[in-house]
Amino acid sequence: MQLRFLIALLAANVLCFSQQIGYHEPKTDTSGRIVPWYGGGPSEAYDFVVRATFRFWLNIAPCPNGVPYYLQHQVWAPNEKDRRALGGDQIPMALSSWNLLHGYLGDTAVRDNMVLIADYWLDHGMSAPNLLWPNLPYPYNTELHSGIYDGDMRAGKGFLQPDKAASFGAELVTLYKITGQRKYLDAAIGIADTLAARIQPGDATHSPWPYRVHAATDEVHSETRNGAHGVAAYTTNYTSALQLFDDLTALRQSNAAAYLKAKAALATWLKKYPLKTNNWGPFFEDIHTSVASNTEYNADTMAAYLLDHPEFDPNSLRLAKGILDWSLATFENKEYQKWGVLVLNEQTAYLVPGNSHTARHAAAELRYGELTGDHSLREDAIRRLNWATYTVDKDGKNRYIRSGNWLTDGYGDYIRHYLRAMAALPELAPANQNHLLRTSSVIRSIDYGAERIAYDKFDARSTERFKLAAWRPRSIRGGKMQWDAAAQTLTVTATSNRVELLK
To answer: Which among 97, 101, 167 has a CA at the least distance from the CA of 416?
Structure first.
């Protein structure tokens, strides 16, 4: 990100004199390749970093106006020394990670935080229903401690980002499924209705919705800066929009026909342009409109979507692998190659390795291996995940390499990649604990007991994957189970909204 750039340039000059990665001195195996800084191996370290970073998030002191710090700032700094406001996708990212973490831990504090952050954004940041772009969230609080979201970091007041609205909408559907509260579904419908009504065919320089647009005037933001001119008419961050339309259609909402039509138009555009051109930008709110930048985020998020949604295209696996190959070639960073790891830069406008970006790519590589049986990148992926643990301090602070403690990269867009990696390769989950790693439904609650695991979920029929290392169940209520002794995993084919695994 541009605001990090000067720091990165200065820090790069001293990199060769320092052996430290993030907060820690590097640790290696007998072949000199990087291992996690914490614990006895990946499974112990990955569990530690997801727990520690969430704990740190919860315990950040609120701002002077009483609002949680992470609802008003994109970078944590002691005594609020950093004056930048909310990150554009910060709340949807957290909701995404917390949903997975809720199933993994069974901790009601995770669910409670999801409700808190969603409610606050809904109550303090939605565009008015009478505007040209109604019922969408503004991504930025232009007056830091106003408690109100009212614009965009670069474009200013009144501007919003439809792609980030789609991300929020998709997470609101999930929150509705967790809580049963209709207000979340209604808000998601409001977002989807606006997107469906405003979609355009798009072309090579215009996505189906503009990247930055004024909610009241329909003006697409443009700027000329340092002799460069740019128009915010293009982005490729649309996997959440696909998911939003899918979910609302499956719930048989009244506007389902419009959602199906909009999804088809979006899919047509994705296949015609970015999936052929590899123009995967932009994403980040702090990059100026006049700066063109491809992003690992948009590329690898699309790859992950293709892996999980083979129905999107007959060649989904091949397309996903093509994106992953392109992403590694475009963003690979060799600064840590001496420890046997290639990490990934964030974007072409900021060629600095990212913790969440490297972890996302690794998780997608492991998922590809799980689906295809091609495990040629397994060890590389694990070392990427090992490297990304080094940005986490003992207390859960998560610092971007040569930059600050970003509440996006270090929290919402960090935890989920470790949990997805565990789901794809269960040996990366703790060797002495019981955890849900994946579900085809949405978990409402889960209780990990000494002799029983009981969970409630949205769909009666679903499939769950558990890593069970503390004890193995002997019977089940609400479905069937299949045990894999080699992987210590249990696959549950559920036929009820409530399932109980009994020791």
So the answer is: 97
Q: Which residue has the tokens 């015609």?
A: 272
Strand partners, 435: 467
C-alpha to C-alpha distance for 401 and 20, rounded to whole angstroms: 11
Burial class (CB in 10 A: 0-12, 13-18, 19+), 31: exposed
pLDDT of residue 18: 54
Q: Which residues of 162-183 are buried (b: 16+ CB within 10 A; e: fewer)?
A: bbbbbbbbbbbbbbbbbbeeee
Strand order in the sheet with 475-477: 443-448, 452-457, 498-502, 475-477
Residue range 330-357: average pLDDT? 98
Q: Are 407 and 73 in contact (CB under 8 A)?
A: yes
Q: Six-digit token pair at 275?
A: 């999936």
Q: Rounded to an integer, what distance in angstroms lies between the CA atom of residue 94 and that of residue 117?
A: 9
Specify the 3-state DSSP secondary structure of 77: coil
3-state DSSP assignment of residue 404: coil
Distances (CA, A) of 150 to 170, 360, 381: 21, 30, 40
Nearest Cα residue to 84 out of 167, 4, 10, 168: 4
Residue type, 230: G
Was domain 67-292 assigned CATH 1.10.940.10? no
Please say if the pLDDT value at position 6 is more than 90: no
Residue 80 per-residue DSSP state:
G
Query: CA neighbours within 13 Å on the CB side: how many for 421?
Result: 33
Tokens of 286: 């702090």
- CB-based contact 404:82 (threshold 8 Å): yes
In one-letter notation, the amino acid at residue 430 is P
Q: 14: pLDDT confidence band, cut at 50, 70 and 90?
A: very low
pLDDT tens-digit readout, 266-324: 999 999 999 999 999 999 999 999 999 999 999 999 999 999 999 999 999 999 999 99
Cis peptide bond upstream of 42, omega within 30: no
CA angle 221, 91, 419 (to 5 degrees): 125
pLDDT in tens, 127-140: 999 999 999 999 99
Tokens of 114: 């999801």
Contact assessment for residue 183 and residue 119, using Cβ atoms and an 8 Å cutoff: no
Query: In this structure, what token pair is assigned to residue 493?
Result: 């084919």
Domain range annotation of the chain: 1-62+294-424, 67-292, 435-502
Reduced 3-state DSSP string for 84-132: CCCCCCHHHHHHHHHHHHHHHHCCHHHHHHHHHHHHHHHHHCECCCCCC
Which positions ≥6 away from 177 have C-beta within 8 Å?
A: 441, 442, 444, 458
Tell me the C-alpha distance between 263 and 269, whole Å: 10
d(CA 41, CA 342): 19
Span 486-499, pLDDT tens digits: 999 999 999 999 99
Reduced to 3 states, what is the DSSP secondary structure of residue 455?
strand
Beta pairing class for 332-333 and 343-347: antiparallel
